[in-house]
């Protein structure tokens, strides 16, 4: 579900707002989401690793909002 929502966010940013900083945030958010999914589906579940991965997704989303609204 998280990956679907992040994917939607990645596609709704208008082209005129896609500065290099925004593109970097989008890539980080995408990469963080892949890592979070892997941590959630790992055979040996680590709460700390999963929380860190979730924080990385949230942090990149926050930075994306900051960069999109600096236009």
Explain how this protein is built:
By secondary structure, the protein is mainly α. It has one domain. Helices cover 77% and strands 0% of the residues. 17% of the residues are buried.
Q: Mean pLDDT, rounded to whole units?
A: 92
- Extended strand count: 0
Helix content: over 70%
Summarize the biggest pleated sheet: none
**N-to-C SSE series?**
HHH
Q: State which percent range the strand residues make up.
A: under 5%
InterPro entries: GIT1_C (IPR022018)
Organism: Brugia timori
Protein name: GIT1_C domain-containing protein
What topology emerges from the helices and strands here?
Layout (H helix, E strand, L loop, with lengths): L1 H11 L7 H22 L5 H22 L3
Helix pairs in contact: 1-2, 2-3
Brief digest:
The protein has 71 residues and is an all-alpha fold.
Main features:
71 residues, elongated
